[in-house]
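TICKET: design request
STATUS: open
ATTACHED STRUCTURE:
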């Protein structure tokens, strides 16, 4: 049995056509069902829908054979025990810093609100900027509005969410897209169904299978 861990939301929507292209169809509509584990038309493949931050955990522990997850999450949790096989080129966006439009310079240590605390820690350290990081779990845009933080590190696509909250993008941190990841140990065991599926994704995308992080 192959278990594929998918990230719910936008990434799931954009992964379904790739699965379909590989001949895998869930037995129910995954976007409307409340179910979390789905059988498919292929007896040996099941799909599980998770939060992006949990996908690497399931794959690292070998409970899921594959994961489809945003590069933002991979940057945050680190590459241990995971191979990044393919850049699926979906759910593209950027990780950026952002702050209030026309903000005055910050006096003292800048406070940065984000759910990407590790990414932020590394980024500001590389900039040689001392900051205080405030961990949030969502709606980072609210933090500068209410005075919880001077700046945020967040995902930006069109920039509309920032704009609607009086914020503007500042510094680029990374380009993001969804990746197909596999457990390092599982990948080395020459598991045929696993390799065939990975190959099918690669062919649809016109890529060669990778193995980099
Ligand atoms: P936008 O207003 O188009 O810049 O979208 C910004 C918001 O949508 C962010 O706060 C994210 O939470 C979410 N978002 C946009 N693109 C993605 C993506 N590719 N993956 C995950 N979340 C995204």
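STATUS: resolved
RESOLUTION: sequence designed for all positions
ATTACHED SEQUENCE:
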């Amino acid at each position: 049995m192959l278990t594929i861990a998918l990230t719910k939301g936008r990434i799931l929507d954009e992964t379904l056509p790739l699965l379909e292209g590989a001949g895998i169809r869930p037995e129910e509509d995954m976007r409307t069902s409340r179910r979390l584990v789905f059988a498919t038309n292929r007896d040996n493949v099941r799909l599980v829908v998770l939060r992006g931050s949990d996908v690497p955990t399931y794959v690292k522990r070998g409970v899921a054979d594959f994961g489809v997850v945003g590069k933002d999450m991979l940057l945050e949790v680190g590459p241990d025990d995971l191979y990044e096989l393919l850049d699926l080129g979906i759910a593209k966006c950027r990780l950026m810093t952002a702050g209030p439009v026309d903000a005055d310079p910050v006096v003292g240590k800048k406070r940065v609100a984000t759910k990407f605390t590790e990414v932020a820690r590394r980024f500001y350290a590389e900039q040689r900027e001392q900051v205080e990081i405030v961990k949030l779990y969502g709606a980072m845009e609210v933090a500068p509005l209410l005075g919880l933080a001077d700046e945020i590190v967040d995902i930006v696509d069109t920039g509309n969410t920032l704009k609607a909250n009086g914020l503007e993008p500042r510094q680029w941190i990374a380009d993001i897209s969804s990746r197909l990841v596999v457990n390092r140990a599982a990948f080395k065991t020459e598991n045929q169904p696993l390799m065939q599926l990975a190959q099918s994704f690669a062919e649809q995308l016109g890529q060669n299978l990778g193995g980099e992080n």
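CLOSING REMARK: The radius of gyration is 19 Å. The pocket of adenosine monophosphate is lined by residues 10, 70, 91, 93, 154-161 (CB under 6 Å).
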